Amino acid sequence: MTESINVTIAMPLDEALVELARNVSPRVSLTHLSRAQRFVYRDGRALWGGYREPPAPEDVSEEEARESLYGVLGSTEVLLSNQVLPDDIVARAGALKWLQLTSAGVDSLVDHEVVRAPGVIVTTANGVHAATISEYIVGAMISFAKNFTKSLRSQDERAWQPYWPKELEDATVGIIGLGAIGGRTAEVCRAMRMRVLAMRRSCERRMSGEEAGQAAVDEMFPPADLHALLAESDYVVLALPLTDESTGLIGEAELAAMRPNAVIVNIARGRIIDQDALVRALRDGGIAGAALDVTTPEPLPPDHELWGLPNVMITPHISGGTPRYMERAIDLFCDNLRRYADGEALRNVVDPARGY
To answer: Is 324 a catalytic residue?
Structure first.
């Protein structure tokens, strides 16, 4: 194949990263949408480029932005974007064959027609979060083991209040979801000499990690044995995608199955946990604590009870944040673009039936 591949990067990006994509193959004909091209609005809400506020008056009118953007989309074969997409992108981008997202998940697009459009492959940036989110997870567990929140409150009160911290060594962590993030977390926890349990959707029976081909895991659990994993874990980590199947996975019964000294860490999506049931379990001593980087809704309302619970650590959905995020996302995109040009299978292809 010698024909050009029309690639559009429809989001703000450092030109050095754009050049990496442009140089993947001499067949690549790349358009990076300029400042005047990256906005499309509906009812005052940004639908393109990750901007959720209207541009300043001197930037560009809505009509000019639409005309410019839609003109580019008409011939686009490969599109790099975040999850904020126009509703009519399939109709507008008639030549589109592959959409690469910069997000690791696809939950906000799972019902979008582009995910199920015949002839369009959708891929994600799954894996780019693994290092930073695994650090967040282990940091949260250390924070609870050493009770840093108690120390910070004492510091605010200028009070010297000694206490006995705990160790993570020999504690049991149960990781629900063993993708890139869960797998990296398992490796770090194993290095800290923790006992590592894991649950994976594709696991059909309880087995050793070695038998399952997971060297960092002591024991693998099938979804049917979720309660058993919860009952054995001092720390429960939610690292699975949000799907119809996983929505509300952790409810009243599951929280009751956990140990009273257990801590739950959620870096997945807020709706995986029944949040009202979680509040009751935290308030009444059903579990010891929760580290929540995701909530329902987001942002969490200022008057929500979770804010006031002393055994809760809340962060504003930042566990995957890193100055290196786009660098890693573009590295993945460039690898996929090379594969696309060479007719090879792409990484991180979304399966609409699974929802990720």
So the answer is: no
pTM of the model: 0.87
pLDDT tens digits, 232-287: 999 999 999 999 999 999 999 999 999 999 999 999 999 999 999 999 999 999 99
Which one of the listed residues 259, 271, 280, 317 is annotated catalytic? 317
Active site residue 269: yes
| Nearest alpha-carbon partner for 294 in 319, 277, 269 | 269
Q: Return the CATH number of the domain spanning residue range 130-314.
A: 3.40.50.720
For residue 2, what pLDDT band results from cuts at 50, 70 and 90? low
Could you confirm whether 298 is annotated as catalytic? yes
CATH fold label, 5-128+322-341: Rossmann fold (3.40.50)
210, 211, 298, 344: the catalytic one is 298
pLDDT of residue 60: 55
- Burial group, residue 238, by CB count within 10 angstroms (0-12, 13-18, 19+): buried
Same fold, 5-128+322-341 and 130-314: yes
Domain boundaries, the chain: 5-128+322-341, 130-314
E strand or H helix at 299: none
